[in-house]
Amino acid sequence: MTPAVYERALSLTSGELPSYLYDLAALREHAAAVRAALPDRVELYYAAKANPEPEILSALTPYLDGIEVASGGELAHVAMAVPDLPLAFGGPGKTPEELTEALAAGVARFHVESARELRMLAHLAERTAVPGRRVGVLLRFNLPLAEESLRGSALSMGGRPTPFGIDPSEADELVRALSGGEYPHLELWGIHAHLASGLGATAQLAVAESVVTWAVGLAGRHDIVLREVNVGGGMAVDYDHPQARFDWPAYGAGLARLSAAHPGLRLRVEPGRALTAYCGWYATEVLDVKSSHGEEFAVVRGGTHHLRTPATKGHDQPCAVLPVSDWPHPWPRAAARLDRITVAGQLCTPKDVLARRVLVPDSGLRAGDRVVFALAGAYAWNISHHDFLMHPRPGFHFLDGARADGAEDAGGSVSG
Ligand SMILES: *Cc1c(COP(=O)(O)O)cnc(C)c1O
Predict the structure, then answer these.
(1) Residue 80 pLDDT exceeds 60
(2) In a domain, 75, yes or no
(3) Which of 46, 68, 109 to mutate to test the pocket of ligand 1 (most atoms within 8 A of CB)?
(4) Res. 144 pLDDT band, cuts 50 70 90
C-alpha cells in the first residue's frame, strides 16, 4: 500500500472504519503511465462503471480522450462531474428516455447494441436533429473469439451467446441500411467490440487484431470508410498477484503496429478495472477472532456489502494486517492462534467472506488490528449491496499527497 494509505489506515479511529481510501496521486501516476504506453493515435476512454466517483473521474481526466457511460444515470453523473470530456453511450437495453436525454446532451457517439436500438435511435435523432449534424454510431458486435484469446478470461461478453452486441450475421444488412441513406440522421462512424475481461496483453492484442480485421473486411465489402474501431476494455487485473500489472507497453507497441497498418482508422480502448483497481483500498479493523471446527475466523467491521468484489469474482481479496498495540477496552482482546485465518464481514450469510485462509503475520492478529484490502478501486463499493443488514456506510477518503493544501481529503464524507 502507499505511504498515504498506510498512514491513514492507522490514524482513523475505530468509529471511522471501515473506510475506502483512494490515493489520487497514485491513480494519476498509473494513468499517466498507461497513456504514455499507448500510441498517440490510439484513444483512451474510461468505462465509468468501474468506479464513477467524481474525484476519480477528475483525477483521470488529463489522461483520457473520453468516457464510456452505460446508462442514463451514468451519463448525467459523468456529464456533471467532468463536463468537458466526450462521452460514448453504450450498454444493452437503452430506453427511449435515456437516448432522448443523451441526444439532448449532445453525446458524441452511440454504441448501438441491436437493430431495434438502431431504429429507435434513428427516430429519436430525427426529432432532435440539429441541421447539418448527424449522430455518430458505432455498431457493437458480438464477434467470435479465438479459443486461445479466451483462455484465462474471467468473464466473456462475446464469442458465445450473450445479450451483448449485435450478432455478426446481421452486420451486412445494418451497414447497408446505414450507408444506403435509410437513416438520414445517423452516420456510421465505426465498430465497437468488448468481448472479454481479464485478458493479458498478448490475448488482448489478438482480440484487437481480429476486431480490426473483421471491421476492415466489413467496410471493404460495402465500399465504405470506417473512421474508428473501439476494441473495448477487459485488461486483466490479477487479484492473486496484486503487484502484477497488465503489460501496457507491449499492448501499446502492438496497437501501434495495428494502427500503422490501418492509417485511416482511429483505434480506441476503453478499460475500466485496469485503470482504477489499484488506487483504492478498503480499510477496516478486526472486531472478533473465533475458532470454529478447527479453523479460525477474523470478523471485521464491514464486509462484502461494501466490498462485494471477492464474492462476485470468487477470489480472496488481497489484504495486509496492520497491528495496533493499543487496546482501550476493559474486556479481553481476542487473538488468533493458528497461522491461517479467514477474514469475514458482519453479514449473516456464509457468503460474506473477504479472504480465505490468509497468512497470519508473525506479529499475530488480534481484535483491534487493522486489515487493509487492496485492489478495491474498481467494481468494489459501487457494485455492492449496501443496504443489506443496514450497517453504516463506510467513510470515503480521497488522499492526494500532491495537493497537501487542505483540499487533500474529503474528510471521511459519506457518499452514496
Ligand atoms: C465494462 C465494460 C468495459 C470495461 O471493462 P473492464 O473489464 O473494466 O476493463 C468496457 N466496455 C464495455 C462495453 C463494458 O461493458
Answers:
(1) yes
(2) yes
(3) 68
(4) confident
For residue 274, the CA-to-ligand 1 centroid distance in Å is 10
Q: What type of residue is 297? A: F
68 within a domain of the structure (yes/no):
yes
Choose one of 226, 242, 271: the last residue of a domain. 271
The vertex-82 CA angle with 126 and 268, nearest 5°, equals: 70
Other C-beta atoms within 10 Å of 32: how many?
A: 12
Residue 299, C-beta contacts closer than 8 angstroms, at least 6 positions apart: 286, 287, 288, 289, 290, 344, 345, 346
CB 259 within 8 Å of CB 268: no
Nearest-10 crossing angle of helices 248-261, 24-37: 40
Q: Which domain holds residue 70?
A: 38-271
pLDDT tens, position by position, 397-408: 999 976 544 444
- At residue 212, does pLDDT exceed 70? yes
- Using most ligand atoms within 8 A of CB, pick from 34, 44, 49 the residue to mutate for ligand 1: 49
Q: CB of 303 within 8 A of CB of 347?
A: yes
pLDDT at 402: 62
- Cell 461494501 sits on residue: 306
Orientation of helix 171-179 relative to helix 115-127, angle to 10°: 20
**Within its chain, how far is the Cα of 216 from the centroid?**
28
- pLDDT for res 149: 55
Do residues 260 and 339 share a domain? no
How many CB atoms sit inside 10 A of residue 53's CB?
Answer: 22
Together in a domain, 288 and 146: no
Does the residue 20 lie in any domain? no
Q: Are residues 297 and 226 in the same domain?
A: no
Burial of residue 68 (number of CB atoms within 10 Å: 0-12, 13-18, 19+): buried
Q: Give the domain-ending residue among 219, 249, 271.
A: 271
